[in-house]
Amino acid sequence: MTMDHILQIENLDVSFSLPGARNLAVRGVSVALERGTTLGLVGESGCGKSVTAFSVLRLIQPPGRIDGGSICYNGTDILAMGDEEVRRIRGKEIAMIFQEPMTSLNPVFRVGMQIAETIRLHLGVSKAEARERTVELLRQVGIPSPESRFASYPHELSGGMRQRIMIAMALSAEPQVLIADEPTTALDVTIQAQILDLLLTIQRARRMSLVLITHNLGIVANLADRIAIMYAGEIVEYGTVADIFASPLHPYTIGLFEAIPKIGAETDRLKTIPGTVPAIAEAPRACVFHPRCFKRGDECLAGPVPLIDKGGERRVRCVRA
Questions:
Q1: Which long-range contacts (CB under 8 A, 24 or more apart) does 134-143 make?
Q2: How confident is the model over 160-180, as pLDDT tens digits?
């Protein structure tokens, strides 16, 4: 781990034991997050993005388990820490914004109290100071009339305002790393833009490191410095935003770009990637994307494909890239 890397994941393996089967949700994932930068973790639903994020905070619950690898934060392996040590980091050093605020906010407590309780837990301040900090946080995330909204219940707020509450809660202990898991899911386009703008503004103001989990390439194009593309539990391509958007190398990444609707296209039919994502119940013996790949050849079946260094920061899991 270099001094510039605040968070580094190496060879992470996570599995879920199901009746009669074991699902290998994440296999050999290695990514690094530099201080003050944004890493976009991109892929379709079920590819392992959220499982990777939950592993960072040691939130994988049975029947899931972390089978191997390391997750180093400021040079210390989180997977080797005791439970009490992890609880001190979780929320204070590394915070997370979850996909659906209504499942993350307690419906029977006022939103201001929930944020204030987080501040008191991590910063050890008085009730009065916690309330003052909460009102200021609500103001920073763009909640109108923050003093009165302090007393609102989650069901009294719109989806966009609930998401702002979640951002305020995640920022309350001034974390060094923020993980945003699909932070704009189920929000309309205008509110999405406002939330993403807010995240970018706060990140720059605090020089915070951000992991942005999404399936939307447009979002990472505007916010991220580097991108990791995930498919079926593996990183298939990694590089800077400029490199990947200029020349995607992995056939899956190329397929994702070609599936984006384009104004003025010759046809109104969307291009798709044929086939379906495989259920991974055992370690792959060859390229996982092979059945769906337009570049496939016999060499793709010779054995498991590693992430191949293409120079600079480019890495791709493809022998024909």
A1: 134/168, 134/172, 137/168, 137/171, 137/172, 138/112, 138/164, 138/165, 138/168, 140/168, 140/171, 140/202, 141/165, 141/167, 141/168, 141/171, 141/198, 141/202, 142/194, 142/198, 143/168
A2: 899 899 999 999 989 999 999
